[in-house]
Every structure is written in C-alpha cells, then in structure tokens.
C-alpha cells in the first residue's frame, strides 16, 4: 500500500489513541476477568480498524479529487450533462404528467 508521511502520522495518532483507550479500559477491570479483558481488546481492535479504514479512504478521496471536475483540452472545466435540474418538456407538456399525453377532449 502506497502511503505518504501525512497518512502515516494520522494512522499513528489513531493507533495511539486506541491503545490509550484500551489501557484506560483495562484499569477498570477486575483482576482475573479474562473474558471481559478479551471483550475489551476485541472492541478496541474493531474501533481501531474502522478508524484506520476511514482515514485511508478519506486520504484516497482527497488525493484522487472529484470525478466531476474534468478539464477539456483547452483547460476549461467541463460540466457533466447529467446534472440538468430542469425536467424535459415535449410539445404536449411535461413527461411526468401522463394526463398531458391524452387528447384535449379526454382531459376534462
């Protein structure tokens, strides 16, 4: 996996926080309660994994940039044609209104 220094620092800080949280939760356990200790360790491992995955995905999204921001050969930003917010109209009216497709005599 290709990482850079900023991502490494972020992942290290996430891991340090998770270990600190684990140590704090272990201090509250009674001595000899191995099942509760195992449960606390598994919970903290899952939290650490989720947080690391979130950081990696955020880093990749920032690095790749938005897919909608494309440039043409002239250097200007291109806009996606699918982002049109207006509904298309035909000669009879709106495509969303089925009554507009009926003949005039049947609309009444």
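-> sequence recovered:
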């Amino acid at each position: 996996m290709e990482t850079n220094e900023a991502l490494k620092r972020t992942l290290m800080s996430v891991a340090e926080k998770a270990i600190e949280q684990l140590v704090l939760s272990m201090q509250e356990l009674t001595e000899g309660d191995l099942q509760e200790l195992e449960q606390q360790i598994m919970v903290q491992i899952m939290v650490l994994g989720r947080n690391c995955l979130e950081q990696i995905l955020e880093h990749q999204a920032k690095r790749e940039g938005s897919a909608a921001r494309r440039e043409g050969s002239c250097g200007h930003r291109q806009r996606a044609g699918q982002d049109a917010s207006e509904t298309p109209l035909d000669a009879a009216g709106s495509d969303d209104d089925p009554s507009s497709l009926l003949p005039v005599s049947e609309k009444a």
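Helices lie at 5-27, 34-64.
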